[in-house]
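Researcher: Here's a chain I'd like modeled. Treat it as a single chain, no partners, no ligands.
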Amino acid sequence: MKKPLIGTLAALALAGGTALAGAAPAHADPVDAVSFAGTVALSNCSGSVVRMPNSAPTDPALVLSNGHCLESGMPGPGQVVTNQPSSRTFTLLNPDGSDLATLTATQVVYSAMTDTDVTIYQLDTDYATIQAQYGIAPLTVADTHPAQGADIRVVSGYWKKIYSCSVDGFAYQLNEADWTFKDSVRYTSGCNVIGGTSGSPVVDASTGLLVAVNNTINESGESCTLNNPCEVDRSGNVTVHPGIGYAQETYLIPACFGPGNQLDLTLPNCALPRP
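Model: Modeled as a single isolated chain. Structure tokens:
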């Protein structure tokens, strides 16, 4: 995964040498309907304001990013963080990528790097208030598995850059250093993500729905090391795709949220890892 940026040259080097080269923000192609609306910039990563398919306008708003972007440190294998107080701030973006407002969290609702790589924050405001004050609607998390071949956009609020590619396929198991992710989205070569893009929403360009969260890329062709994930199939065979990025599917998340956007890992169809 792309190690979180912390604002120093040393950290940028750890996050990957290409991170520094990507410092000049770039905006979406004008022909593309996907914009920065709904996205946020974190201090070291990217993210988005999200709703579940059944979320109500008056529900507390949620922000989705990566588990390895958690401000208290990356969760270890098997570790699941829930209901942790947080006052983290997020820069909400206009559709053109310019800064619009600052949003503030009240808690980390869920964070894990086991099977997936997600952090979900609860904000101190609701969707209706964000819409009324800033004219920004949340991205909706799809509750169905992403499709192979789908036209996708990886929208980085940190770099204000949109990557365009397709879903090349799915990795049965993705190993990176000590962490294991399951059923990961593999990009085609167009999404050559860099440090700071971690946590970016992966949007299906045909539906506008959020189908995954960007989290890693094989930087130098190494196998199963930090910043060099490898794929492991059902038979244990290992494959390395140098220069190819990955995202973690998010379709399992809605089944773990009940009325009022309340996390409930005991719901019958909830398959997220538990503490």
